[in-house]
Design brief:
Layout: H1 2-5, H2 8-21, H3 55-66, H4 85-96, H5 104-110, E1 113-117, E2 121-123, E3 136-140, H6 144-150, E4 162-167, H7 187-195, H8 200-228, H9 231-251, E5 256-258, E6 270-276, E7 282-288, H10 289-296, E8 300-302, H11 307-329, H12 336-366, E9 373-378, H13 384-394, H14 416-429, H15 438-449, H16 458-481
Parallel strand pairs: 4-7
Antiparallel strand pairs: 1-3, 2-6, 4-9, 5-8, 6-7
Amino acid sequence: MGQYLYSPTPLLAILLTPLVEAGLPWNSHIANTSLKKTDVVSFDPLSLLAILWNPRASTSAARLYTQQSRPAFRWPHMLQIGCVLTPVGVLVNHLTLDYQSIHPAVSMYMANVVSLAVKKSNIGSVNAEKTSLFPELPVDVGDDLLMEALNFKPSRFAANDMMVVHVKAVASDRGDSGGGGGGGRDGAALALAWSHAKKGWLVAKLVLATELGAGVVAFAGTVFSALLGDMWAVTLFATYAFHWLASTAISFRQLIIPDPNLTIKQDPRFVFAVYERPSGGAVIFKGRQDVMERWARMKWVFNNVSVYNICIHWLWISTGAAAAFTSVACMVNMGGYMQLGFLGLLLYSSAAELWLTILTRKLQTQYADSRDFECVLVGNNEKRYQSIIHATLGLEEEYRLDKMRWINLGLLPSMQIFQAMVNTMDYLNDPANELNSRLVRARDVFDDWCVGMPERDWETRDGIWAEIEKVWNQRNSRRTSSTTKVPQV
């Protein structure tokens, strides 16, 4: 008996008995495939709309900080889809990066700036050799008029199209930041140009009404949520309301400005920069040398001259980060109808941003005095030399590319026939030559350059002269009729 008392077998049997009789959890229940029934409305999955990446929201935030149309137009930042991701990114950069050289807000803006590789640039004088001035031009993707010029609709002969852009001024020329220069317009003159707009007051009212619409929805959502006792909804709508207030405060300031320490020597000579589009055609910029150089060398800095600017910047990124967190944490816990109201806020603000963009473009297109760029398209020409002749002889003086070195820039091959064409156009554009007999003498210049030309180029020679004669006669007829409108060639 004693041998069984100390044997481990009975003890092991006692311990294993419950395990033998136990069943696995799923053995005692049968899987139920029936759908869950509920009367509660829910839009939980749509909470992701608030934090979806939206490039338009990023562009809108950049416009908010730069306010490049001030004092004529104030850009309001809307609470559209993805609007809270940009302040979160700025906040992360503040916490993780050493921004002694560049401020995170400037980094946010520069993410919406692309570098336009210009083929070459040259000083615009007839006898000057080409001189490279700058390899790139910074382009703000939020500048609708400039982007429209770069992305112009091609004709049937896309490779021969040319968009001529007369650069009148750049941001720092407008007197916004005290960094003005030759050829620019001060802020008072710009504001005066816009103040003469017949419907300017109506546009301002429309912008204000559109902006207030988002704020009213955010604050109304906060009040109704409190009345319903839905604290999740109160938190969500309140954070968006405060973020709207911060955005509105910034819209009355200019937190990112051109570097006021950039000094450029005044130079009235014209410079040409050529951008050849991958899809065909060329965009040719014409402007004063000092204006173009200021554009190429432009740097942006955070405007921290006042404590107020720093405070509203931090208010914007902190409320934006809080709104991003509550967009998911509160959206899935609050009532279904308040979820629907929040989605309505996002959709309204997204549509409002599109509406404001269209309104801004229409307004800038209508009032030429407020624009930094003027454009004219030379297109639908079967031969490239036809476009060049129209651009060199046929355009109004402010657009005319009369001092551009086409062969030096690689836009024409260095052949005898094209050298004859270029020198003939130089003669016609030279004001020192007698106007009445200029075309007759230009024919002599053209024939002299064509001496000894190979027979294979004779057809091109005749076509070039016929085009020169036609465009010159059209130019003279416009001069006699005193037409001031820019021809659309």
